[in-house]
Design brief:
homodimer; 6 strands; 4-stranded mixed β-sheet; alpha/beta; two-stranded antiparallel ribbon; Peroxisomal Thiolase, Chain A, domain 1
């Protein structure tokens, strides 16, 4: 936020598929910890495409006038769910985090968001997954991916 | 969708805190199963306020012109995480699902969305939670709430 030249932001949207806990959402806690108080804040879960959906949603909240600025945060801790001995995933997935500040501004401003072409493919839902405990009674909830098909 | 008078929709946003699995998101699979193919689809996680944040985000995606209609779906299966012997939660939290179709239209149309006043309070993140396995090595991941404080 310092590099964006502001101390305050109107909302926070957090993209993650590896939150510390399923409930509550992490975005309100992030907002509180960075001193932003009770701003609108929620989590988006969309795995690899999470940052893009979060950017689109955050930008749309500004366009719709619901807030005038949004801090988009994305973070994953795949080291928690990746089996370090599984070469099909361990060499590709790790931990990382980033953040982007979005604010209202003229459409022709440098850096303005232009357009999105978003999509999904639910037919392949089985091809990449973190199993639930009941699917993996051994307790090992390793992330699995059918790499070539994905 | 039938009652909304349409067979197709431009996007789907799904609010849940109790997904069947953390990865992949459920929205693309819902979109696929209801015959909507590869539309933009993602999950939002915000517990009780999930439906409101999802309505606001879905409406904003339409206002911003990213899509012309969105199916907002919200579903929770709290029976999976609520301890049936805990009277502070078991009498309040259960399972349920609902859906609303949003589409572009005139601002003065009956049923048009007017405005939102959204907020959060991350300071209270410890007051209501589903623990992660490492927090509860016994394997019982019961949802817990400090009722009076919440």
């Amino acid at each position: 936020m310092r590099s964006a030249g502001t101390d305050t932001v109107g909302g926070l949207v957090f993209a993650t598929t590896t939150p510390e806990r399923p409930c509550p959402a992490a975005a309100p806690e992030i907002a509180y910890r960075i001193g932003q108080g009770r701003i609108p804040a929620f989590d988006i879960s969309a795995v690899c495409s999470g940052f893009l959906y979060t950017m689109a949603s955050a930008g749309a909240l500004i366009t719709a006038g619901i807030t005038d600025s949004v801090l988009v945060v994305a973070a994953e801790a795949y080291s928690r769910v990746v089996d370090p001995t599984d070469r099909s995933t361990a060499v590709l997935f790790g931990d990382g985090a980033g953040a982007v500040m979005l604010r209202a501004g003229p459409a022709d401003e440098p850096g303005a968001l232009l357009a999105y072409d978003l999509g999904s493919d639910g037919e392949g839902a089985e091809l990449i997954r973190i199993p639930e405990p009941r699917e993996q009674p051994s307790g090992e909830r390793w992330f699995a991916m059918a790499g070539r098909k994905v």
